[in-house]
């Protein structure tokens, strides 16, 4: 399932493991030079780490692939954390809808 936000896109696939796994991408086309791509990847990893409590409250574990968008470089550090938290809430809602069926 794909979820979009202003500074990131998230691809979420259920896994059979005991914990969530993270993959991070930052393309040269979208972000430019290596310094900017590395900063974007650091911000995405921090957003994932900061949402650990929300992620652990999900019923199922997932593989998360976070794609950085160019806006992530101009936003404050807090923005990707909040956007990922909103995506986690959408995943939680889709879990409850699937469970109701």
Order of helices and strands: EEEHHHEH
Distinct helical segment count: 4
Helix-strand makeup class: alpha+beta
Percent of residues in beta strands = 15-25%
CATH class: Alpha Beta
**CATH T-level fold name:** Ribosomal Protein S5, domain 2
Average pLDDT confidence is 95
Count of discrete structural domains: 1
Measured between the Cα atoms of the first and last residue, the distance is 18 Å
Oligomer: single chain
Strand order within the widest sheet?
1-2-4-3
Q: Helix coverage percent of residues?
A: 40-55%
How would you characterize the overall build of this protein?
There is one protein chain. With 101 residues, the chain is α+β, with helices and mostly antiparallel strands. It has a single domain, classed as Ribosomal Protein S5, domain 2, CATH 3.30.230. The chain has four helices and four strands; from the N terminus they run βββαααβα. It has helices spanning 28-31, 34-50, 52-56, 78-100; strands at 2-4, 8-14, 21-25, 62-68. The chain has a four-stranded mixed beta sheet. A hairpin with a 3-residue loop joins β1 (2-4) and β2 (8-14). 24% of the residues are buried.
What are the key terms here?
101 residues; 4 strands; Ribosomal Protein S5, domain 2; 4-stranded mixed sheet; 4 helices; 49% helix
